Amino acid sequence: MKVKRFVAVTGCAAGIAHTYMAQEALEKAAKELGVEAKVETQGTIGTENKLTEEEIEKADVVIIAADIQIDKSRFIGKRLLEVDTNTALKDAKTLILTAMDQATVYSGKGTKVGGKIEIGTSTNKFVRYLMSGLTDMIPVTIAAGLLLAIANVFAFQPDPNNPDLVVWGFSDDAKGEFFSKLFDLGKIGFTLMIPIFAAGVARAIADRPAVAPAFIAGFMINDAEFLGTETGAGFIGAIIVGFGIGYLVLLLKKVPWPQFIRPVVPILIIPLLATFAAYIVIYYLIGQPIAIGMNSLYDFINHITETYASAPIIYGAILGAMMGFDLGGPVNKTALLVSSAIFIDTMNQFGPEGVNAIPQAATGAAISVAPLGAAIATWLFRKHFLLEERTLGSSAFVMGMVGVTEGAIPFAAAHPSLIIANTLSSGLAGALVAAVGIHFYGGIGSPLGAFIGYTTGPAFSWLWWILLILFSAFVNALLYRLILRKRVITHE
Amino acid sequence: MFLVEEKLENKEQLLRLIAQKAAELGYVDSESDCYRGLLERERQQSTGFEDGFAIPHCKDQTVKEPRLLIFKTPPIPWDTLDGRPVRFSFALLIPEQSAAEHLKYLSKIAKSLLDEEYRQRLKQENRQGIYLLVKNQLEEE
């Protein structure tokens, strides 16, 4: 196919040198090849030579020569080739000829070009911001999660008063100390994961000045002690902080500050104002509602369980769904509190014969469904996940197998619509184990709980336990597939 | 415009020298910030061009106004597009915020290096000649 006309966009980090050199190189080469070209420059002084819709429409191919993210939503449906600026400088003629020959139609999904897998080529900038936070968070989740998962396996001891039961806690010897500290270390990682995610999102929106306030605010919104609540706001709080701080800083950057303080605006004024604003909003407007919300949610669920004592499937579904909803956040914690409170109350009242451990079975089964489902999804439906996410999938499996529900957070944080999948499938797990009548006396909330833990109920309750959890996790994977069906990643 | 006689082992040494000179001339507030900015840019992607030319640059708050420093040095090993060592470094100092017209000067200089004939002329000139060539280039149009 002979190309007569192409359009290009150039851009570089500083927006001074390579943006314009690439433009010059492309224009020169176009002239030598006898093709028509228009090159848009996205430099530090703004966009110049802006491509019109008509020019894009008429062009046979689009070339992007940039070292920075260029919004490609205008080019959906066009043949497009993306390279860095140096490629254009080195040999613009070959670049143009290659683009004519090999450029593929851009569909708005992630594409792999020039040996780099791009994260978040999505046309939706919100998704791009979330993906930026995800990239920062993934290594933290993996490192902290795996260490915590290992430690958690060693945390279950036989109950000295009842050999059928297990209690959670580390032994008093040197081994116990080692694993209890390892567990604490993992928890530090999980604590930091939230602000790191918030800071990553905020940085993608408003650049470096947003990092410090978002980090502090992300920590604050998840710190139960600071908020005076039972638990922090979890990853949903981190999303709120990331976007809140990001846009606030963007706004503060636009303020016409007097010349003499301008040099300290990004390092002093903006972080100071944004952090202070975060304090007011989070403490007075978010902390209180969480505390009040958790209390009323607790009462409500307690009430439901009593009302539907004869229909465990109903409260099982609700408790399970709550577990999967925010993965360790306030709703999840409330469900855990309710189920263990009912267990302890009925145990004290009626003893082991009359104890109601069905709510605990619902939450225990549901706790692992989200991370296991995410893992299965990354294995079965590879093309819908980035390489990083597939790595994360395997570590989510390990976390899921020992009942660490946080393993699914990065997926839900980057694609909030997956919360629907987690909630439904975790609810399914809760409903199923409750319907079958499984009592869970404690232990690892995962398929392994059948062995490191204690279940009663129907015959082969341990087998039911394993199968129902895995079934729900599989359903979760299918739901992930359904939700991410339009997101296709081209791998090498 | 600097003519450097002493041998520079690698581009880090040159970047250090650029930062040092920029600080001496009062073009930047902090020498170390300037060096860090230059280095950071190289890390993202080499600014080595071809034919012995490089365009190291630093975009940072420490830079007070847009400036160009030219260094003519003995050959420095550099990951350039054609693999040849660098003898001419056009160092650009770019503030975070500045008037567009000043920034355009810097862009214009960078662009002009694409012109092979212009590069040949730069190579043959002495200090005075290079200065005039750059100045004339900016005043064109």
Largest interface: A-B, 27 and 28 residues
| CATH fold name of chain B | Mannitol-specific EII, Chain A
Write out the CATH superfamily name of chain B: Mannitol-specific EII, Chain A
| Percentage beta strand of chain A | 5-15%
User: How many domains comprise the coordinates of chain A?
Assistant: 2
Largest sheet of chain A: 6 strands, mixed
Mass-distribution shape of chain B:
globular
Write the topology of this structure.
The complex is a heterodimer of chains A (492) and B (141).
Chain A: E1 5-11, H1 18-33, E2 36-43, E3 46-48, H2 53-58, E4 61-66, E5 79-83, H3 85-90, H4 92-102, E6 104-105, E7 112-113, E8 116-117, H5 125-153, E9 156-159, E10 162-168, H6 174-206, H7 211-221, H8 224-227, H9 234-254, H10 265-307, H11 312-326, H12 330-354, H13 358-366, H14 369-380, H15 387-401, H16 409-414, H17 418-436, E11 439-443, E12 453-456, H18 461-483
Parallel strand pairs in A: 1-2, 1-4, 4-5
Antiparallel strand pairs in A: 2-3, 5-6, 7-8, 9-10, 11-12
Helix pairs in contact in A: 5-6, 5-15, 6-7, 6-9, 7-9, 7-10, 9-10, 10-12, 11-12, 11-13, 11-17, 12-13, 13-17, 14-15, 14-18, 17-18
Chain B: E1 2-3, H1 11-24, H2 31-44, E2 53-54, E3 57-59, E4 67-76, E5 86-94, H3 100-112, H4 116-124, H5 127-139
Parallel strand pairs in B: 1-4, 2-5, 3-5
Antiparallel strand pairs in B: 4-5
Helix pairs in contact in B: 1-2
